[in-house]
Design a protein that fits this description.
Length: 350
């Protein structure tokens, strides 16, 4: 797979990934088949539940224990509002607007979405988008910046230890590795846009604003310094931790555990738990099959609040050119996948 040589013509990414074949390794017959789970797969699913649910449960317990002392309704709503706003900045802004250009919007809203994404403190928008475009272009290959299956030196291997190692790398470890080189080729369109460049340059100020705003709001409501400090803690630091973890789960969990109704040439998965927590981003196999689609939850039951927000913006004229895949193409790709699974099952039965 050659690297992108020109501005991310995101529509082309879908076809390029679909043309690839599955890499050798763990079979990809989980979805659409009735193959019983092996003991290793059962253990991996338990790891999945623990990895995704446990931190959220831990946070809920911390909040419950702090109620009335270090946490109350004021802090609760500031925490919820900041979590939701900055998550939308990542899912609707950084991911679907800047990286994949799955819809268009005006300069002011583009700036606001970029600013909210910056407050999530996951890196400046151009670097974030470049890394993510590279992920799509080389998904689960050696050049993928954050694959739980492959690294520049080859495969992470198989078995529980290798899976946990790969999970850690995809989840957070890759952020501490070598800085990504040659990323400029992935983002010439973003670097040519003045609004995007402004957001990118102001990244550190915007990240700081993401701490000051909840502190100031909490301080004004409670008229106390302790209230402001708690606003900084819950609406700032704890919120950043939670949104980080949820976003990283898309990179790690959604390339390890879940179903793959579409043949995408990588190991992307639809994971319902991440689907809900990450505002629709967990329908990741759908997303790898149709990267430029503003809609990731392609079935009626696949909750995708980020797409609902984009639809809402379009309804009031603030977004336009919203891209979704042709339903016939979705059906065809699903059928191709189902036929492939049937072949795998049949050959396994022989
Ligand atoms: Zn992915
Ligand atoms: Zn993407």
């Amino acid at each position: 797979m050659t690297q992108l040589q020109s501005p991310a013509p995101a529509a082309d990414l879908a076809d390029s990934t679909q043309a690839r074949v599955f890499p050798a390794g763990r079979p990809h017959a989980e979805s659409g088949t009735k193959t019983p789970l092996s003991p290793v797969e059962v253990r991996l699913r338990i790891v999945n539940l623990v990895a995704v649910i446990l931190p959220v449960v831990g946070l809920a317990i911390a909040i419950a224990l702090s109620w009335g002392t270090a946490f109350d309704w004021v802090q609760f709503w500031i925490f919820v509002a900041m979590t939701y706003a900055t998550s939308v900045g990542i899912t609707v802004g950084y991911h679907r607007l800047f990286t994949h250009q799955s819809f268009k919007t005006g300069r002011i809203l583009r700036y606001v979405l970029g600013a909210l994404g910056s407050m999530a403190v996951q890196g400046a928008v151009i670097e974030w988008s470049g890394a993510h475009r590279k992920h799509h272009q080389h998904s689960d290959e050696e050049d993928d910046p954050h694959s739980p299956h492959m690294h520049p030196g080859g495969s992470w291997g198989s078995g529980i230890r290798a899976t946990i190692h790969g999970f850690w790398h995809a989840h957070v470890g890759w952020l501490f590795g070598q800085r990504l080189k040659g990323m400029g080729r992935y983002t010439p369109d973003l670097r040519a846009d003045r609004v995007t460049c402004a957001v990118n340059t102001q990244f550190y100020w915007l990240a700081l604003a993401g701490l000051i705003i909840p502190a100031a709001v909490a301080g004004l409501i409670t008229l106390s310094l302790s209230g402001a400090l708690l606003g900084l803690l819950w609406g700032g630091l704890v919120r950043i931790l939670l949104v980080h973890h949820i976003t990283w789960s898309v990179n790690s969990v959604c390339h390890l555990w879940g179903t793959s109704p579409f043949r995408t040439g990588d190991r992307s998965r639809n994971n319902a738990i991440v689907g809900v927590l990450a505002l629709g981003e967990g329908w990741h196999n759908n997303h790898h099959a149709f990267p430029t689609s503003a809609r990731h939850g392609l079935s009626w039951w696949q909750f995708d609040p980020s797409y609902l927000i984009i639809r809402g913006l379009a309804a009031v004229g603030l977004a336009w050119g919203v891209r979704t895949p042709d339903p016939a193409r979705v059906l065809t790709n699903r059928n191709v996948r189902a036929a492939t699974n049937a072949e795998i099952t049949a050959s396994a039965d022989e």
